[in-house]
Design a protein that fits this description.
Elements: E1 2-7, H1 11-25, E2 29-33, H2 44-49, E3 53-57, E4 65-69, E5 74-78, E6 92-97, E7 100-106, H3 116-135, E8 142-147, H4 171-183, E9 185-187, H5 189-192, E10 201-202, H6 208-211, E11 214-215, E12 218-223, H7 224-227, E13 230-235, E14 252-256
Parallel strand pairs: 1-2, 7-8
Antiparallel strand pairs: 1-14, 2-4, 3-4, 5-6, 6-7, 8-12, 9-12, 10-11, 13-14
Helix pairs in contact: 3-4
The chain binds one DNA strand through residues 9-10, 12-13, 34, 36, 60-62, 109, 111, 117, 149, 203-208, 210, 245, 247-248.
DNA sequence: ATGGTCGTTGCACGA
């Protein structure tokens, strides 16, 4: 089962890149972030014509997440699925696809360490951890994937020194991510790749992609029963190139041998 | 190609 996460930075603007990418790569499950559209505008008919069921949790101008699947799409839940007041922003959804529970997450950016949005980011991650603790059996096959807006360690940042005092690399953010892994999730990319310099996001500004100035912030986290079935994971840098304008994120593609699940 | 962002019911702000 090929599971992909891709922050598309507006599905409306990116549809002419996303459709041919799906045709070329045939993901079984495709998790999208930053669709930036309402549920009414979500092009479910386009995906249905390609053989995909889909569900979308959107709010309009900002945020928005979706899950596309050609291996079933059941028990869709918007948000954290807990009893607390709903998150005001459309950043999380769940579905069961091909026997795997899938969570598609767009973690808040944080903006800067002294910003209220950074506090929101840390609280959001803790709420996700609590939702896992309260609602998921860690021995079940679960993948939590999406744009985490966190570089797990310094190998995941083009110049760690340039990010001192900035978001995405701060210890509280990395600790919040560690809270998820301590619950039972594994960053499956690091099961297959040790080296530094493998990124999933490059700023549009200043020719960052051309210079190799990126970060690995789009993650595929899996529970142990699923992580041990991951046969490979790669980042499709080609999707960050060319015209029409690409997203500033590349798709991350993880293969799982789910036949025995 | 000797610089260099993109997206939004935008025209300032978030990423």
């Amino acid at each position: 089962m090929l599971v992909v996460t891709w922050n598309v930075n507006s599905l409306k603007a990116r549809l002419e890149r996303v459709v041919p990418w799906i045709e070329a790569n045939a993901p079984d499950v495709l998790c999208l972030q930053e669709t930036k559209m309402t549920d009414e505008a979500f092009p479910s008919g386009v995906f249905a014509e390609m053989g995909y069921e889909s569900a979308h949790v959107g709010e309009g101008r900002w945020n928005g997440v979706a899950i596309l699947s050609r291996v079933g799409l059941d028990d869709v839940v918007a948000g954290f699925g807990d009893d607390l007041p709903a998150d005001p922003e459309a950043r999380l959804m769940w579905a069961t696809c091909g026997g795997v529970r899938v969570a598609c997450a767009y973690v808040p950016n944080g903006r800067s360490l002294d910003n209220d949005h950074y506090t929101y980011k840390l609280a959001w991650l803790e709420r996700l951890r609590s939702a896992l603790v309260d609602g998921v059996d860690p021995t079940d096959p679960l993948v939590v994937t999406g744009d985490f807006n966190i570089a797990p360690d310094d190998r995941d940042v083009w110049d760690p020194a340039a990010f001192e005092g900035a978001t995405h690399v701060s210890q509280p953010e990395r600790d919040a991510l560690a809270g998820l892994t301590q619950w039972g999730l594994t960053d499956v990319f690091r099961q297959h790749h040790d080296q530094a310099g493998l990124y999933s996001w490059w700023d549009y500004r200043g020719g960052s992609f051309h210079k190799g100035h990126g970060m690995r912030i789009d993650l595929v986290l899996a529970t142990e029963s699923l992580a041990q079935r991951c046969s490979g994971i790669r980042i499709d840098r080609d999707a960050r190139k060319g015209k029409p304008t690409p997203s500033d994120h590349a798709p991350v593609m993880a293969d799982f041998d789910t036949g025995s699940l």
